[in-house]
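Annex B. Sample input.
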Amino acid sequence: MDLFDLSGKVAIVTGGNGGIGLGIALGLARAGARIVIVGRNAEKSQAAAGQIHAAAGVETLVVTADVSHPEHIERAAAETLNRFNRADILFNNAGINIRRPPEEMTLAEWHAVLDANLTSAFLMSKAVYPAMKRQGGGKIVNIGSMTSIFGASFAPAYATSKGGIVQLTRSLALAWAKDNIQVNAILPGWFDTELTLKAREEIPGLHERVLARIAQGRWAQPADMAGTAIWLASAASNYVTGIAVPVDGGYTSTL
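Annex B, continued. Sample output.
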């Protein structure tokens, strides 16, 4: 048996229509999984679905939903089960960032970031849990950040949400080990995406400071996430749960 083969599995990727999420979805599809893209932008999601089908030929479902709304999460889970009658893998990848020093951040902005990044991961995991338990197991992977480890003076809500992702991962892993559900986190380093492009535009010198610290000497591309994603989604990681894996080119190991 190929431990990394995902044939027959159904994988939900929130925010799977671009950036890291699309890199994850493409990797899982190439390993054989059918894909459910959950995203706010229907046109962007349909384009991503076309790209996934062209690359891997797997069936792809698009669910237009905003994971900061609990009712949208319930609908996304329901549409997945109605279409495929199973949910084997969940990647909680969707997220937003509002860059503001803490003294300037409003309560509404704080809640917006935590709802989209952290509460959504909790609720989405709860939504698929009954199906995974009924099937005899499953894989949940939460996408954290380097700010799960480091602080960020310019993004306090984002850093808090991503720190919370690690603790949520550990808690779910302990709670659901009895159900053969493995829950892990990936902590991406600096990936070249639309989100980080905006950060580089807003924060002078960010690109140069980041590049100087990455041991491999380059920003990551979304495809660099695929290998770790496949590992944590597959039978190869059946005895791995509750961990947070940096995928950062050596960033966190550099003084």
